[in-house]
Design goal:
Layout: H1 3-24, H2 27-30, H3 35-49, H4 54-71
C-alpha cells in the first residue's frame, strides 16, 4: 500500500472517530441533526479555547468526558 493511501485511511479513521464523539454526546439527536447549530457550538468551544478561560474550560470538559467514558 502506498504512503498516501495509509495516510488517507488514518485520516478517515480519525474523522469517523471524531464524528462518533459528536453522536455519543447526544448533540446530533438534541439538535435534530442541525449542522449549523453543531458547528456554532464547536465554534463557541474554539472561542473559549482562545480566551483566558481556556484552562478552566479544558478542565471542565475533560472531567465530563472522562466521566462519560467511565460510565459507558
Amino acid at each position: 500500500m502506498r504512503d498516501w493511501q495509509v495516510q488517507r485511511r488514518a485520516r478517515t479513521k480519525h474523522l469517523i472517530e471524531l464524528g462518533g464523539l459528536v453522536v455519543k454526546s447526544g448533540v446530533v439527536e438534541m439538535t435534530g441533526d442541525d449542522r449549523a447549530v453543531i458547528l456554532g457550538a464547536l465554534l463557541w468551544m474554539a472561542d473559549k479555547l482562545k480566551s483566558e478561560e481556556r484552562d478552566r474550560a479544558l478542565a471542565l470538559w475533560a472531567g465530563k468526558g472522562k466521566q462519560t467514558f467511565d460510565e459507558n
